[in-house]
Amino acid sequence: MRSIRVAPVALLGAALVLTAPAAIASAAASGGASSATGYTVTPSVIAPGGQVTLAARGCSATATAGSGVFDTVTIPGGGSAAATVDWDAKPGSSHEVTFICSAPPGSTAKVRLTVAAASRAPTAGSAATPAGVRGGLGGGGPSTAELVAGTVLAVAAATGAVHMARRHGENRPR
Question: Measuring CA to CA, which residue among 30, 68, 46 is closest to residue 118?
């Protein structure tokens, strides 16, 4: 009886252990570039037409951020704002994003932004749609960790069902 109570906890623990590396890798992959003064560009590598988040956590007043691949953006004090990278930005190029804080004494920081290969170029007459906005069934399918975790859970469920069926058969009056 005690093993039945412990089994779900053990299965949940196994699922967490198997999926944790994928979650950590995903978080690391979405990283951005930053300066030591609290100015960040996320993500630091972006495809033409993609959107970056510009944060000025190191500035208590309004800040501006500008680069050769997007229009100048005004960032509220201590906050963040979004900018869209130009569709004609050259893949593989690297650009400086210059942050200027308007609070006295005024500070300037530079953060690197790299333009990656375009996932798809806009055609004449088509609207530029960011990849995350398209409808459909979603991403590229489950990761290896998700497949392993699912398999482990399915085997555990089947084993539990067989165990319960055998045990139920033993407890029947004859």
Answer: 46
13-51 pLDDT, tens digit per residue, is: 554 444 444 443 333 334 556 555 688 999 989 999 999
Would you state the structure tokens that stand for residue 76, as one six-digit string? 């509220």
pTM, entire model: 0.49
Give the amino acid at 145.
A
Q: Are 86 and 48 in contact (CB under 8 A)?
A: yes
